[in-house]
């Protein structure tokens, strides 16, 4: 024991020694205090007065829309397709006499490229552009052009900014910081492009045109503000005492909360661990809002979201799941190996950036690992099991390496210079405990696959792989803007909260799966509330923002579609319906369908007898007694089948509600996928924003899921009649999202008709196609050919599918001819004052 404890202290001492001996890493932060000595400025001061007066400085600023080539080096996580990407190109030109000392200084390029910014700021002054930056400012190498008497030096600077559609663009032209001044006056030309000059401060233009503004300025700062040329300012501010959008948003939130609580069911509240979980989350929710009010207290929100909530979730799952986690020694070795790989990555960073020398790292790491392994061997040698001793030694050595890497990382974090994505990685791994516990609760068991999937999901919540693999993410902490979703800055805590909302939606779907494993779920109010909550979430559309503690926070204010989805789904599920005898299995379903087909045959035969009997009796080919005999025989056969209408085509066909719902959702999704070409592919900076942007792909198929899940409860008695009722509900819901935009007088009637045609065509194709598929599926499950109910040789039978195909073709033509206005309406970019609240 003495040897074991001694070796453990040696290992710990090696880790402490490495941590104490570690040097602070010098980061790329800008130097504090005055500007460093610039030899180029010193050379400028040595020129004769005549040479100084011969210098001429000019600047040309071009504002344009950033192209794909300009954004190639920008990580995808920072690009928000809803915003405007702006490129500001600045070209400085300095005309000098051939004998000016600055010419030789430029040719020697002292300190280039590190001093390029100092050179341009000294001669021309710094040009600042407001707004979130997409990438660091880039500067090209200077270009010198000489003649017999003069030399011109050209400096090119590129700035990328990302602005919302209604943001103003402000340019600040600061005074040169050289002393003495290199030039006394500067000529500046601004080419606004798609922007219009709104304000000038300290500027008297020499040339003022729509596409060009030139002015001369001395050694003092000036600024100008530009507005997008397509943006108009309202003459009057709308009164903010009442807003329909805000009221609808509050009503939607209240209704959604009610359905969420009802979806839990009374049995959920009877369990003590569930009540404790609810109280814990209720206490954590206000703390997560702290960053909205006091940014300095964000640390408390981080602790709650990434420490307290994961521990609460794991504790709740441990109390609710009857079995213990089936982790084995192999799982422990795999997890330890992953930790060692991360630790070695951090130790490599410490060596590359001079936190510790290579010799010190090797010596300290070797001593810590070997001493830890020796301590484990001394502790376990009495067991006499060689495999156990070896495993404990390996685990102890790996733990020592990981602990050393963790200690050096904490030292770097305290010093303020660390790999920027290392923080997000630690937070993502901590947050992963929440989906691990959620998946365990949903499946009622602990699974290794669920752990791996939860970790991957957690990493995707914090950013796409392109963002994780950014070249600067694992080097040094560089000042870079956070990605944005609209006006919401996607900090790690915001991403974590959005991930919780996505996880909550997934849990609702998994709850439908658990409830839908049994037939009584069709009439279960808990399943109905859960289904309505899912539909409402899918149809919530953000249409504005609100101000909370002087912070612009986007909220789901345009909630008309969500409320209509609530009403139409309730209308579908609460209509009059026949008492349906559900088959217990496929054999019973087959007997019911065959009896229904036989009854249909008798009804058709009776109708045919009445149709042809009139002509044959009048012609004398059929006597009255023979007619009565045939009619009585048919009526007797019908009476033997019962007087109640057949309901074989209104049952679950011997399948569970979840099984039927998945089939209906899949078919509806396949039928609606071609319309994704109209709406465009989803965009997003991470998993949650991507899923939210792709909700239009799943909203209409969700109605199909409702069709299959609650099929016996829907209005109608046959697949096609139920599909027509579904089409009415889905069409009303889909069109409700465009009502405010279609009422705008600035949109032409042709564009409105195209939008309505596209929406109507999509809904009719999906619903009619789903009805035809369901009719075929019922016959297929009964082992009967579809032709017995849908005769392809009958014109009447082909009416519904023919209409669907015609509408689909018309929709496709309208989609291909849709103009820019129609695209904006369909994609939700047409934001008007009636749907936006400030």
TrEMBL record:
<feature type="transmembrane region" description="Helical">
    <location>
        <begin position="664"/>
        <end position="682"/>
    </location>
</feature>
<feature type="transmembrane region" description="Helical">
    <location>
        <begin position="277"/>
        <end position="294"/>
    </location>
</feature>
<keyword id="KW-1133">Transmembrane helix</keyword>
<feature type="transmembrane region" description="Helical">
    <location>
        <begin position="694"/>
        <end position="711"/>
    </location>
</feature>
<feature type="transmembrane region" description="Helical">
    <location>
        <begin position="358"/>
        <end position="381"/>
    </location>
</feature>
<feature type="transmembrane region" description="Helical">
    <location>
        <begin position="330"/>
        <end position="352"/>
    </location>
</feature>
<feature type="signal peptide">
    <location>
        <begin position="1"/>
        <end position="22"/>
    </location>
</feature>
<feature type="transmembrane region" description="Helical">
    <location>
        <begin position="755"/>
        <end position="776"/>
    </location>
</feature>
<feature type="transmembrane region" description="Helical">
    <location>
        <begin position="242"/>
        <end position="265"/>
    </location>
</feature>
<feature type="transmembrane region" description="Helical">
    <location>
        <begin position="723"/>
        <end position="743"/>
    </location>
</feature>
<feature type="transmembrane region" description="Helical">
    <location>
        <begin position="485"/>
        <end position="510"/>
    </location>
</feature>
<keyword id="KW-0812">Transmembrane</keyword>
<feature type="transmembrane region" description="Helical">
    <location>
        <begin position="300"/>
        <end position="318"/>
    </location>
</feature>
<feature type="transmembrane region" description="Helical">
    <location>
        <begin position="449"/>
        <end position="465"/>
    </location>
</feature>
<feature type="transmembrane region" description="Helical">
    <location>
        <begin position="422"/>
        <end position="442"/>
    </location>
</feature>
<feature type="transmembrane region" description="Helical">
    <location>
        <begin position="797"/>
        <end position="818"/>
    </location>
</feature>
<protein>
    <submittedName>
        <fullName>Uncharacterized protein</fullName>
    </submittedName>
</protein>
<keyword id="KW-0732">Signal</keyword>
<keyword id="KW-0472">Membrane</keyword>
<feature type="transmembrane region" description="Helical">
    <location>
        <begin position="388"/>
        <end position="410"/>
    </location>
</feature>
């Amino acid at each position: 024991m003495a040897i074991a404890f001694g070796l453990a202290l040696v290992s710990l001492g090696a880790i402490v020694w490495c941590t104490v001996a570690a040097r602070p890493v010098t980061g790329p932060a800008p130097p504090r205090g005055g500007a460093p000595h610039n030899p180029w400025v010193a050379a400028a001061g040595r020129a004769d007065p005549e040479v100084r007066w011969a210098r001429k400085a000019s600047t040309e600023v071009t504002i344009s829309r950033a192209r794909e080539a300009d954004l190639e080096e920008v990580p995808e996580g920072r690009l928000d397709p809803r915003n405007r990407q702006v490129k500001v190109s600045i070209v400085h030109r300095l005309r000098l006499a051939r004998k000016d000392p600055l010419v030789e200084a430029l040719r020697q390029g002292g300190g280039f490229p590190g001093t390029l910014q100092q050179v341009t700021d000294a001669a021309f002054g710094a040009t600042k552009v407001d707004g979130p930056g997409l990438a660091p400012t880039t500067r090209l190498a200077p270009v010198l052009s000489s003649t017999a008497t003069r030399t011109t030096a050209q400096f090119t600077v590129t700035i990328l900014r990302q602005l919302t559609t209604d943001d103003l663009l402000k340019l600040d032209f600061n005074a040169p910081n050289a002393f003495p001044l290199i030039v006394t006056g500067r000529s500046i030309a601004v080419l606004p492009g798609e922007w219009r000059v709104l304000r000038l401060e300290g500027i008297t233009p020499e040339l003022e045109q729509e596409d060009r503004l030139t002015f001369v300025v001395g050694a003092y700062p000036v600024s100008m503000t530009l507005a997008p040329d397509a943006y108009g300012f309202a003459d009057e501010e709308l009164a903010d005492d009442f807003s329909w959008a805000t009221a609808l948003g509050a009503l939607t939130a209240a209704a959604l909360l009610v359905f969420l609580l009802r979806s839990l069911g009374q049995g959920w509240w009877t369990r003590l661990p569930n009540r404790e979980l609810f109280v814990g989350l209720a206490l954590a929710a206000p703390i997560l809002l702290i960053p909205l009010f006091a940014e300095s207290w964000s640390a408390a929100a981080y602790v709650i979201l990434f420490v307290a909530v994961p521990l609460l979730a794991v504790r709740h799952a441990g109390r609710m799941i009857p079995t213990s986690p089936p982790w084995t020694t192999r799982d422990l070795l795999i997890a330890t190996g992953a930790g060692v790989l991360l630790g070695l990555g951090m130790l490599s960073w410490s060596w590359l950036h001079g936190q510790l020398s290579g010799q010190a790292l090797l010596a300290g790491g070797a001593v810590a690992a070997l001493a830890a392994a020796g301590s484990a061997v001394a502790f376990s040698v009495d067991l006499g099991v060689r495999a156990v001793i070896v495993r404990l030694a390996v685990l102890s050595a790996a733990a020592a390496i990981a602990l050393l890497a963790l200690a050096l990382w904490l030292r770097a974090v305290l010093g303020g210079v660390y790999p920027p994505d290392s923080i997000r990685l630690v937070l993502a791994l901590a947050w992963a405990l929440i989906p691990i516990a959620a998946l365990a609760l949903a499946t009622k068991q602990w699974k290794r696959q669920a752990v791996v999937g939860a970790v991957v999901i957690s990493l995707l919540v914090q950013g796409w792989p392109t963002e994780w693999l950014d070249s600067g993410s694992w080097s040094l902490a560089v000042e870079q803007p956070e990605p944005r979703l609209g006006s919401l800055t996607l900090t790690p805590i915001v991403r974590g909260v959005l991930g919780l909302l996505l996880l909550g939606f997934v849990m609702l779907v998994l709850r439908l799966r658990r409830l839908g494993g049994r037939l009584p779920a069709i009439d279960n109010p808990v399943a109905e509330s859960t289904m309505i909550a899912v539909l409402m979430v899918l149809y919530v559309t953000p249409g504005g923002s609100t101000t909370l503690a002087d912070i612009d926070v986007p909220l789901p204010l345009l909630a008309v579609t969500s409320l209509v989805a609530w009403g139409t789904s309730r209308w579908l599920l609460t209509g009059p319906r026949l008492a349906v005898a559900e088959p217990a299995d496929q054999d019973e379903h087959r007997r019911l369908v065959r009896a229904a087909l036989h009854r249909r045959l008798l009804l058709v035969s009776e109708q045919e007898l009445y149709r042809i009997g009139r002509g044959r009796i009048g012609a004398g080919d059929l006597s009255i007694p023979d007619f009565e005999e045939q009619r009585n025989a048919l009526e007797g056969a019908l009476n033997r089948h019962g007087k109640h209408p057949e309901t074989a085509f209104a049952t679950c066909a011997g399948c569970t509600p979840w099984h039927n719902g998945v089939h209906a959702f899949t078919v509806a999704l396949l039928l609606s996928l071609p319309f994704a070409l109209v709406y465009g592919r989803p965009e997003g900076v991470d998993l949650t924003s991507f899923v939210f942007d792709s909700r239009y792909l799943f909203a209409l198929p969700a109605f199909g899921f409702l069709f299959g899940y609650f099929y016996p409860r829907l209005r109608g008695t046959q697949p096609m009649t139920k599909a027509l009722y579904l089409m009415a509900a889905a069409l009303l819901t889909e069109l409700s999202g465009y009502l405010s935009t279609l009422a705008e007088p600035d949109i032409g009637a042709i564009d409105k008709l195209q939008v309505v045609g596209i929406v109507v065509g999509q809904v009719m194709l999906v619903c009619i196609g789903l009805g035809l598929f369901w009719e075929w599926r019922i016959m297929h499950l009964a082992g009967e050919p579809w032709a017995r109910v849908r005769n392809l040789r009958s014109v009447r039978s082909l009416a519904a599918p023919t209409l669907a195909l015609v509408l689909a073709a018309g929709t496709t033509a309208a989609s291909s001819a849709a103009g820019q206005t129609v695209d904006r309406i369909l994609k939700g970019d047409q934001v008007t004052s009636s749907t936006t609240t400030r």
